[in-house]
Design brief:
With 162 residues, the chain is of the alpha+beta class. The protein has a single domain, classed as 3-Layer(aba) Sandwich (Aminopeptidase). It is built from 4 helices and 7 strands. A 7-stranded mixed sheet has the order 1-2-3-4-5-7-6, sandwiched between helices. Strand 2 and strand 3 form a beta hairpin. The radius of gyration is 15 Å and the shape is globular. Bound molecules: coenzyme A (COA). The site of coenzyme A (COA) has 19 residues, from strand 4, helix 3 and helix 4.
């Protein structure tokens, strides 16, 4: 398995890279793709103080995935994992696990102790739920019919330890 290189500072090209990546996963609606890419644009405009942080992962100089995360306002040490995505051509090779581990290290460095992730209860998201469960998250809550009828919001928590 290749080791990934991580980069925190976004550049202008990352807007298109993130949009393409989200589209290629076929997991997100057009609106979600636009939101994901616009967060990179905003981060470029506002800087790191804005509260949305990124880790871009490259394998052999190719962009293969990223996370977007940040502190949850009003909490002592809670962080949200807003987005995690790995290019379909590179999935199931351990990149998601490496990306998550690197993100957790950053959160710990910043003083975060709890990491939250949300996903859907539908069959399409079974791999995503397996990914969280295999990586130390536990299901802490479930909001019935949150996204749509029979499409619940699944709230996962991971307690971070050094
Ligand atoms: C979730 C995601 C980031 C995982 O990335 P990845 O590089 O494929 O993950 P890894 O190879 O590190 O997998 C780690 C573990 O997660 C689980 N997992 C990952 N993909 C899985 C799949 N398709 N089916 C079942 N389990 C899966 C497995 O337990 C796997 O460990 P194993 O291969 O030893 O069994 C990736 O599948 C993805 O981008 N999905 C689409 C976008 C998404 O759902 N994002 C999260 C919501 S924002």
């Amino acid at each position: 398995m290749d080791d990934l290189k991580f980069r925190e500072e976004p550049c202008a090209e990352d807007v298109g890279r993130v949009a393409r990546l989200l589209s290629r996963t076929r997991f997100f609606t057009a609106e979600e793709e636009e939101i994901g890419a616009s967060l990179v644009t905003e981060r470029l405009r506002e800087g790191a103080r804005w509260g949305y942080l990124f880790l871009f992962a490259e394998s052999q100089d190719t962009f293969v995935g990223y996370t977007c995360y940040g502190p949850i306002p009003g909490t002592l040490d809670g962080y949200d994992l807003y987005w995690i995505a790995v290019d379909p051509d590179s999935q199931r090779g351990g990149f998601g696990r490496q990306l998550l581990a690197a993100t957790e290290r950053k959160v710990l460095e910043l003083g975060g102790k709890r990491l939250y992730a949300e996903t859907s209860s539908t069959a399409q998201y079974q791999p995503t739920r397996s990914f969280y469960e295999r990586n130390g998250f536990f299901l802490e809550g479930r909001l019935a019919d949150y996204y749509a009828p029979a499409d619940d919001k699944m709230l996962y928590t991971k307690i971070l330890v050094r």
